[in-house]
């Protein structure tokens, strides 16, 4: 059976209730008649022999690049950088796509006699990965060959000895990136494009940069003018990264970009019902839903979190392209759209979304309230091209428990951001002006980022800035089932049920609003006409 | 005349102690405090006058006394039976001169400076502390022509504010209330003076990180004093004033009174760490761990073992912890105090404050009036009760924070119950 494209369902009397995620649980909600439900396209067919496809891509590069073997020679300095734990979501079944690509690159390097090879996890300001996480991403063979010798490192954006100032763009943006990567004869970047925001010049200009450099585009102004940041030509975030990337290239840093795309086969078979359309649920799907719902309602949130974070996604590679950054990324973006794009006619007054247990910044961790906001208003809201799914002045209704829980080791500055910043302002511009620098340069956060597994001190600000476009666009944000105090702390309105939320929303959008539900994940991108 | 009298009674004292286990202030109903009919005390000597209380506050030290939980240290410096109430705004019954030397005609509104120092006790020559103007440190508070009592409200001869019969006060204890101050503002002047004294006694330098633990009356007034005295040039301007406040209304008031941040007490250490740009020993969260640096000055306005331990955890090496809240017998690990050479200093009462200039001495109460007027500290008076409802009043005071209140006072005026 051929793959079906995305689908926009209009709810009528015969429509069964719709699945809503809510953190580490899910439930069924009955949407008003006339509502729309947007379903993701079905998974694209996976590449049957990924290793062969990767090898082929390296031998037949895009743009102005020689095949990889021609760029490799004895005595050269080769650095392979790769995306970190934030991709893909959920973490994929082994072998991870990074492992497959890096093994292939290393084979070619070995054949060429290259012996100065180092691997760097491109963390930007994310937390350092654990050994288990690195082993999962790279495979034991690669890990054991490099890590014990100090040749597998994680980018340290606070290590002055290992940062190199490249220069300033014509817009005055300072570009400072990892010195080892910048001074290598060849920098190979191994990317996973889960969403269209990823990749391109953003890989190096962000993933290997310092705070000094990142602050030029990770700020409220840029994010308010990225409409959306999932659509590169319309994204100020990407425009800045492209300027920086081109400066890096002009400075002589030779980058060989390898980008991969995945299908949206998100959940393993025992959770397959989560990515099906409800009216197509089989008896087995119904039984699985009932069993899972009942079990999750019985276990404490902490255990439910452990269950979900143990999920390994059956994501499979749908494309791989390598070579010059911009040429590669153009193909990648097209391939992402081929999997995720869906046309939607017109905007809606109310956009509903159930937020799952995971976002890029809480893998093996806790989804704290700031990340809840970021997932809903940063990621889901921005999954569009053209114009947002919800009209200006409209309402977003998110379902999530929004517990005021934080992982103290991963998100220490988030706790202080929640207690000391959000209590004073939810305005991204004000917090940028009054608080950002003190968090970004706080020696304790820096220490925890460099030596522990903590996100950088400034990271919660960036997550809030990710919401900046939505915050200026929307008339109200309502959270169903969230901890009322935490929801109010975020500046949103709490509601105990979807019906309550619709009642609250009517103050903003009137008594007969249009409603669209994002049946997400699996993720999709709306092309709103 | 209705008077609340506190008598020496060991069974009632024991009952109060048991009752207070169910909540602060619960000792009032079963303890040694009784409502009696009693005349005004007689003036002990020349220089003393009668004062008719208008409002009289319920202080933390009163609660500790009523609950049978105050330190045995005080046993020899109080005399029984006494009428509590040392936070008093009242009306003068006779003409006199005030503490600042000016005439005070009968009918004037006055605030009581309750310490019974050498002047009130008729002691000549005065003790060194009183000679230096530090009446709070008077060494003769159990001597002289009145019975022992560190303050009015703890002395058998003076009466106290919790009585419609009135009290007697020495002229050196009386301060005229400016017309623009409400009765509520005025009844807070005594605790404001405590806060002023604590702030001016602390070695605060410009840009310092200052932490205030507790946001009951004293914590909020220390916050208010920090703000006003810095503005008035009486002390350096801190870089940040961080207030640990348990309840939302306390957090709001702390911010209104000049706190840079007001947040739950369990978050205060984190805020101090961030503002002092310190590292933290033990625990990535840095919630209770000792800091590499910390606050330059911590005002402990609680005085519990927990708050003292918290103070020591968040003060910087060679910093100062000022104990403003009245402590009792506590068990605290003093290793950090020793290792970090922390100064742990008491901050009691008031007297004379040294200004920026060598000869610029000023009465603490004079400054307290300025703070009360500028910060409108009367807003902290959340409820007043008639003396007849003393059990309700004391229970309310004992649970003030939880019930959204700050300062509870008795309305002692004759006439309709407010």
Q: Would you summarize the structure shown here?
A:
Chain A is an alpha/beta fold and 529 residues long.
Detailed description of the structure:
- The complex is a heterodimer of chains A (529) and B (418).
- Chain A is 37% helix and 20% strand.
- Chain A folds into 2 domains: 7-42 and 340-528, 2-enoyl-CoA Hydratase, Chain A, domain 1, CATH 3.90.226.30; 50-262, LarA, N-terminal domain (Rossmann fold, 3-Layer(aba) Sandwich).
- Chain A has 22 helices and 20 strands.
- By secondary structure, chain A is of the alpha/beta class.
- In chain A, strands 1-4-19-14-16-17-18 form a 7-stranded mixed β-sheet, sandwiched between helices. In chain A, strands 7-6-5-10-11-12 form a 6-stranded mixed β-sheet, with helices on both faces. In chain A, strands 13-20-15 form a 3-stranded parallel β-sheet.
- The mean pLDDT of chain A is 97.
- The two termini of chain A are 29 Å apart.
- By secondary structure, chain B is an alpha/beta fold.
- Chain B folds into 2 domains: 2-189 and 372-411, Medium-chain alcohol dehydrogenases, catalytic domain (Quinone Oxidoreductase, Chain A, domain 1, Alpha-Beta Complex); 203-346, NAD(P)-binding Rossmann-like Domain (Rossmann fold, 3-Layer(aba) Sandwich), CATH 3.40.50.
- Chain B is built from 13 helices and 19 strands.
- In chain B, strands 3, 4, 7, 8, 9, 18 and 19 form a 7-stranded mixed β-sheet that branches.
- In chain B, β11 (240-244), α8 and β12 (261-263) form a beta-alpha-beta unit.
- In chain B, α6 packs across α12 and α7 crosses α12 (364-375).
- The longest helix of chain B is centred in the middle third of the chain and has 15 residues, at 217-231.
- Chain B is globular.
- Chain B starts with a strand and ends in a 7-residue tail after the last strand.
- The model of chain B has no long low-confidence stretch (mean pLDDT 93).
- Chains A and B meet through α15 and α18 of A and α9 of B.
């Amino acid at each position: 059976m051929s793959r079906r494209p995305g689908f926009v369902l209009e709810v009528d009397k015969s429509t069964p209730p719709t699945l809503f995620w809510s953190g580490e649980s899910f439930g069924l909600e009955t949407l008003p008649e006339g509502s729309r439900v947007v379903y993701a396209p079905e998974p694209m067919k996976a590449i049957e022999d990924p290793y062969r496809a990767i090898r082929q891509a390296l031998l037949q590069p895009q743009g102005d690049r020689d095949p990889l073997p021609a760029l490799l020679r004895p005595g050269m300095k080769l650095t392979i950088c790769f995306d970190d734990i934030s991709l893909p979501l959920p973490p994929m079944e082994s072998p991870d796509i990074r492992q497959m690509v890096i093994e292939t690159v290393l084979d070619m390097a070995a054949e060429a006699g290259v012996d100065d090879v180092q691997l760097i996890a491109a963390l930007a300001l994310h937390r350092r990965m654990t050994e288990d996480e690195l082993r999962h991403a790279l495979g034991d063979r690669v890990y054991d060959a490099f890590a014990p010798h100090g040749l597998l490192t994680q980018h340290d954006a606070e290590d002055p000895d290992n940062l190199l100032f490249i220069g300033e763009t014509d817009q005055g943006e300072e570009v400072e990136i990892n010195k080892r990567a910048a001074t290598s004869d060849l920098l190979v970047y191994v990317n996973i494009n889960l969403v269209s925001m990823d990749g391109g010049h953003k890989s190096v200009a962000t993933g290997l940069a310092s705070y000094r450099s990142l602050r030029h585009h990770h700020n409220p102004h840029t994010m308010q003018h990225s409409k959306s940041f999932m659509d590169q030509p319309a994204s100020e975030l990407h425009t800045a990264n492209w300027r920086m990337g081109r400066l890096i290239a002009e400075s002589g840093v030779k980058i060989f970009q390898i980008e991969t795309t995945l299908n949206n086969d998100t959940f393993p078979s025992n959770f397959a019902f989560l990515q099906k359309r409800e009216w197509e649920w089989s008896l087995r799907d119904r039984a699985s839903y009932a069993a899972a719902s009942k079990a999750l309602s019985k276990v404490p949130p902490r255990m439910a979190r452990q269950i979900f974070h143990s999920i390994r996604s059956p994501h499979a590679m749908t494309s791989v392209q390598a070579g010059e950054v911009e040429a590669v990324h153009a193909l990648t973006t097209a391939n992402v759209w081929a999997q995720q794009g869906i046309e939607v006619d017109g905007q809606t007054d109310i956009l509903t979304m159930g937020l799952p247990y995971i976002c890029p910044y809480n893998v093996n961790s806790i989804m704290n309230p700031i990340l809840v906001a970021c997932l809903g208003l940063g990621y889901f809201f921005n999954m569009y091209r053209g114009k947002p799914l919800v009209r200006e002045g409209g309402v977003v209704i998110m379902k999530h428990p929004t517990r005021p829980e934080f992982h103290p080791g991963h998100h220490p500055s988030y706790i202080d951001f929640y207690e000391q910043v959000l209590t004073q302002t939810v305005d991204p511009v004000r917090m940028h002006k009054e608080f950002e620098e003190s968090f970004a340069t706080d020696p304790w956060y820096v220490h925890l980022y460099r030596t522990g597994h903590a996100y950088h001190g400034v990271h919660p600000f960036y997550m809030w800035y990710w919401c900046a476009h939505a915050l200026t666009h929307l008339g109200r944000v309502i959270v169903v089932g969230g901890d009322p105090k935490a929801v109010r702390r975020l500046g949103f309105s709490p509601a105990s049920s979807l019906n309550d939320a619709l009642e609250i929303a009517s103050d903003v959008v009137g008594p007969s609003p249009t409603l669209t539900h994002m049946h997400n994940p699996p993720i999709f991108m709306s092309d709103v006409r | 005349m209705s008077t609340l009298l506190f008598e020496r009674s060991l069974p009632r004292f024991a009952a109060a102690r048991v009752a207070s286990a169910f909540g602060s202030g619960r000792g009032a109903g079963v303890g040694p405090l009784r409502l009696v009919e009693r005349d005004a005390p007689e003036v002990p000597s020349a220089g003393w006058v009668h004062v008719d209380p208008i409002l009289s506050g319920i202080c933390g030290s009163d609660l500790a006394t009523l609950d049978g939980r105050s330190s045995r240290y005080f046993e020899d410096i109080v005399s029984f039976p006494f009428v509590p109430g040392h936070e008093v705004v009242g009306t003068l019954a006779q003409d006199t001169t005030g503490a600042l030397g000016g005439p005070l005609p009968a009918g004037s509104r006055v605030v009581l400076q309750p310490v019974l120092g050498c002047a009130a006790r008729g002691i000549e020559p005065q003790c060194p502390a009183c000679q230096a103007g530090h009446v709070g440190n008077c060494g003769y508070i159990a001597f002289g022509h009145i019975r022992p009592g560190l303050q009015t409200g703890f002395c058998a001869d003076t009466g106290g504010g919790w009585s419609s019969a009135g009290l007697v006060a020495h002229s050196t204890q009386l301060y005229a209330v400016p017309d623009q101050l409400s009765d509520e503002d005025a009844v807070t002047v005594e605790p404001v003076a405590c806060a002023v004294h604590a702030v001016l006694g602390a070695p605060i330098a410009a840009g310092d990180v200052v932490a205030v633990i507790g946001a009951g009356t004293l914590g909020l007034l220390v916050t208010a004093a920090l703000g006003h005295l810095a503005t008035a040039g009486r002390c350096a301007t801190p870089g940040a004033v961080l207030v640990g406040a348990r309840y939302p209304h306390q957090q709001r008031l702390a911010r209104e009174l000049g706190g840079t941040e007001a947040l739950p007490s369990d978050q205060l250490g984190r805020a101090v760490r961030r503002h002092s740009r310190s590292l933290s020993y033990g625990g990535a969260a840095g919630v209770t761990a000792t800091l590499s640096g910390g606050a330059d000055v911590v005002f402990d306005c609680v005085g519990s073992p927990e708050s003292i331990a918290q103070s020591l955890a968040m003060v910087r090496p060679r910093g100062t912890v000022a104990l403003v809240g009245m402590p009792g017998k506590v068990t605290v690990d003093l290793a950090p105090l020793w290792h970090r050479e922390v100064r742990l200093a008491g901050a009691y009462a008031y007297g004379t404050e040294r200004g920026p200039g060598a000869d610029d001495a000023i009465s603490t109460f004079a400054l307290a009036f300025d703070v009360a007027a500028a910060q409108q500290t009367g807003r902290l008076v959340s409820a007043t009760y008639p003396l007849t409802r003393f059990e309700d009043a004391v229970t309310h005071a004992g649970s003030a924070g939880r019930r959204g209140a700050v300062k509870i006072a008795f309305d002692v005026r004759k006439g309709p119950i407010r």
